[in-house]
Amino acid sequence: MAKARKNKTHNLKRIQCLVDELLDKCLHFATNEKPTNSVSSILDEHRQLYEIIERLIELEKDVGTALPDREAHFDSFIDWCKNNGIDCSNIEVFKCDGDNEYGLKTRVDINENDLLLVIPRKLILSTETAFNDNCYATFAKVDPILQSMPNVLLSMHIIEEYCKGDSFWKPYLSICPSHYSTPLYYTHEQMKLLKGSTALQEAVKLCRNIFRQYAYFWKQLHTPSSAASKLSMKNVFTFNLYRWGISTAMTRQNFVPSTDGSTMINALIPLWDLCNHKSGKQSTDYCNERGAIVCYAMQHFSSGDQITIFYGNRSNAEFLIHNGFVADDNENDFIYINLGISKNDPLFALKSQLCKQVNVPVADKFILKAKNRAMDKNLLAFLRIFHMNQNELESLIDNSDQLFATESEKYKHLQNRIDLFMSTRCDLLITSYDNPNNVLQTQISGNIIKLISFEKNILESYVLK
């Protein structure tokens, strides 16, 4: 027994040293972050942080609690839903293609706009219900991160409820995935597959922020004077548990009105969040009269069809980073393209003056959609200003009408120059992507390869043949 205690203490000290090292490195990289950081420096940051995380996971493997075995708990989850007022008679949970993926399908024909689901407020897990737990509330009221970051407040609430033996939400949390396909689960080799994509910097930044939060909360939980030391999660808190809680919130959270209706709060909506995404229309709202989330069919569903909902207007890079998938039918897909007017441009003063006048950045990440879709208005205005001569610029200082208009005879003479510029720039960006060969096919690598393909398609639509 004495030897076991000694080994446990030694292991804890090794974890603490790595946690301190992780905090220091995260702070260093955050302090030195620039929008112009090279791909190699971004990947080197991830490599250094990931090496520490790998060592922590190894040291913590005997510390944590088991994450959900979701398939074993669906029956008790459905019973919990029924016992708390959800009508489940016309829907059922089924296993989709993919790694431990599930969804909902209908047992009956459902017409567009028919009522699908009603989820009573009492089942919703939110930043508001976080304060119903006195122990967690005591910590949340004094912790600066939990006070300022509602998504983290919700994530830690999820973890605490999962670790409590008597949590009301345990049947729900037990059917959440045990792992996800977000960047928090990427190996370094998988992260390297994002080379060329603007999603790379966002993915690495997300990892750094979550790594830093984990280290911060680990120290809080192991500080006897901290209110965190009284939480149920204290003795089982690991990186694996934290990234699970963060990913559960990140991939499933929505916004619902607070109880008094004064603000919108972060929340998880049980059962409804088993619906997978498909392009369509928003069909879910909060009904004050029912005191519940109500979801209507966004299209006709025949008996046996999967029930899908529309997650919102997001790019595939946003879906990849925050939801862990890439949509095949994403009508709203776009990428970011970095453009700017050089200070060495002889007309920089005039161009920057006009940009400021019409509220268009002189240098920024601009939204780029496929060429067969309407160009983003800010990008269109920037490109027109970028390609104007002195006389054209001076004439616009007092008359900048139609600068944002997609169809404008006034600026039609600039189109050939814009087309050539965009063709050259997009062709160059295509070459910055790696061509992955002999990549081990997993859900994560498959998602990344699909994203790269869609991003290249957008760029290729501008390349002149």
TrEMBL record:
Q: Which GO terms describe its cellular component?
A: cytoplasm
> Protein name, please?
protein-histidine N-methyltransferase
**Is Transferase given among the entry's keywords?**
yes
Q: Which UniProt keywords apply?
A: Actin-binding, Cytoplasm, Methyltransferase, S-adenosyl-L-methionine, Transferase
Outline the extent of the SET domain.
Answer: 89-312
The UniProt entry, under CDD domains, shows: SET_SETD3
What is an annotated GO biological process for this record, any one?
Answer: methylation
Q: Where does the record place it?
A: Cytoplasm
Per its record, the protein catalyses: L-histidyl-[protein] + S-adenosyl-L-methionine = N(tele)-methyl-L-histidyl-[protein] + S-adenosyl-L-homocysteine + H(+)
Please tell me the species this chain comes from: Leptotrombidium deliense
Asked if Methyltransferase is a keyword of the record, the answer is: yes
Broad class of the protein's primary localization: cytoplasm
Any one GO MF term held by the record is:
protein-lysine N-methyltransferase activity
Q: Which SUPFAM superfamilies does its entry note?
A: SET domain
Give the EC number(s) under which this enzyme is classified. Answer: 2.1.1.85
Family indicated by similarity: Belongs to the class V-like SAM-binding methyltransferase superfamily. SETD3 actin-histidine methyltransferase family.
Q: Which Pfam families match?
A: Rubis-subs-bind (PF09273), SET (PF00856)
